[in-house]
Amino acid sequence: MQNAIELENVTKRIGQEVLLNKINLAIPVGQIVGIVGQNGSGKSMLFKAISGLIRITEGNVRVWEKDVGKHGNFPEDAGFLIERPGFLPHMSGLKNLEILAGIQKKIGREEIKETMRLVGLDPDLKRSFAKYSLGMKQKLGIAQALMEKPRLLVLDEPMNNLDEESIARLRKILVELNQKEKVTVLMTSHDAQDICTLCGSVYSIKNGVINLM
Amino acid sequence: MKQTGILRSDLKRIFTSPIFWAVIVVSMICMALNLVDLKKAILDQYIHQGTLNLFIFSAVIVGGGMLSVIAPVLPVLTYGTCIWDDMESGYIRSILVRMKFSKYLLQRIVSISISGGAVFLVSMTLYWGILIFLDPSNSPMIEHGLASMAFGNIYAYSMLLYCVFYVVLVTIFGALQALLAAGVSLLAQNRYMGLIVPAVLYHSGRIFYALSGYRVSFLPWYSYSISDAKTTSAAVYYDYSFYLVLCVIVFVLGWKRAKRSGRL
Questions:
Q1: CB atoms inside a 10 Å sphere around CB B35
Q2: Which candidate from B89, B98, B101 shows the least CB-CB separation from A89?
């Protein structure tokens, strides 16, 4: 089976500190995989390595069989939500997503609006991002990851700041995308229920070392 | 994969920004105030000075007045610290999973330069247009001593060319000032330092030149003649080259520090 993500001996050091320690990981296509770990265990750093945002010290990261992070390469056909979602504070949610969608020009305004409605946001809301609630900011971050209909979703704590209804809605979206569109999902969550109900396999990470649970 | 990047949306953001247009209005008001002062002083001598003379009086001569004080701040306000702002907000992560690092940096450098340069290009062009409306006459050259100052040869050849050349130089200065702000904000990891430090550096330079008696810089509104037009013009090239090198060094150091900061 083809792997969506492959990590080989991925190590990240900053000074003497080892943040990721020889991580080997393969995420098969069409699976939902969870990663659990305490704060500071290396989850976000791992996701940044997969997204190409940081340059790893050793090893290889491949997404859809293409090297990531070398020569500034970024993963194609992938949506990311890493740490807190950041947007232009004085612009509306729709405008923010339009600017991001304009980079690759894969989708138009209607698809963006559709994704915003899917996650429970009103695309016609004129309010600036700075005035969004924490939950709305998180939803916009999720919409940003979903909007270009990627085959791979990498979501760092996607349920953060969401209310019960929104969490249930997001779980449903992820399951449907996985089952109907064969979207591969790699996610972290503090909530054991998310991991148990959604994920086919679960890894734990501690001190930069990853193990299958 | 087809990528158009962020340049187009950047330009749209710059030219629709209220800050950008507010800065232009301030810049034009400063030039107009200079004109009022200068016209009072020379009114007895020249009643109709003509567009080009008025432009040179109010925008070039006597150090630019109030504009010379606030000019170093104006180009950085619209977009000078945008890379740091992207990092601080986390917005950069959403961009960099969609485009290459190198392309992001290049496009941001272009948009920052345009945002800084356009402040003076647009304000001076608009101001020039207003002067044409106020006094469209094509009066002869007035002896202000410019022929012995930087680029006096251009002035002697054509007042029109001299004005265009001056606007181009000031535009380049605006672009460099904005780039310096981008570098400083990354290096200091602070938006406000990015807004303030380039102006402080500029005015420190002015004071240094004034105290040392070596007043040959032609970074806008520095200009004084010390010997002859040729020497002073050469000094202008050196000053701009120095400024460019300073921008590159600060920007590279700033970018390296920002990448190490863990904000990506």
A1: 21
A2: B89
Q: For residues B49, B129, B22 and B12, what is the CA-based torsion angle, rounded to 10 degrees? A: -160
Longest dimension (CA), chain B: 67
Query: What SS3 string covers B21-64?
Result: HHHHHHHHHHHHHHHHHHHHHHCCCCCCCCHHHHHHHHHHHHHH
Q: What's the token pair of residue A6?
A: 């492959």
Instruction: Work out the percent of chain A whose per-residue pLDDT is above 90.
Output: 69
Residue A92 near chain B (CB below 8 Å): no
**Both tokens of residue B147?**
């022929």
- Strand-strand pairing, A66-67 and A58-63: antiparallel
ipTM of the complex: 0.89
**pLDDT for position B216:** 47
Q: Are A169 and A142 in contact (CB under 8 A)?
A: no
Percentages of chain B per state (helix, strand, coil), in multiples of 5: 75, 0, 25
Find the CB nearest B4 among A72, A76, A103.
A103
Contact A91, A131 (CB under 8 A): no
User: How many other CB atoms sit within 10 Å of the CB of residue B33?
Assistant: 14
What pTM was computed for the model?
Answer: 0.87
Q: CA B22, CA B7: separation in Å to the nearest integer?
A: 22
Report CB contact under 8 Å: A72, B8: no
pLDDT at position B50 is: 79
Q: How many CB atoms lie within 10 A of CB A24?
A: 11
Find which of A73, A99, A137, A142 to mutate to test the B interface (most B CBs within 10 Å of its CB).
A99
Contacts of B146 (CB under 8 A, 6+ apart): B56, B60, B61, B152, B155, B162
pLDDT per residue as tens, chain B (264 positions):
555 678 989 999 999 999 999 999 998 888 888 777 766 666 555 556 778 887 887 777 655 567 778 888 999 999 999 999 999 888 998 998 898 888 999 999 999 999 999 999 999 899 889 888 887 777 766 666 666 667 777 888 888 898 898 899 889 999 999 999 999 999 999 999 999 999 998 888 777 777 776 654 545 545 554 556 677 777 777 778 888 999 999 999 998 888 777 666
CB contact under 8 A, A99 and B92: no
Residue of A29, A4, A1, A14 lying closest to A208 (CA atoms): A14
* Contact present, B67 and B31 (Cβ < 8 Å): yes
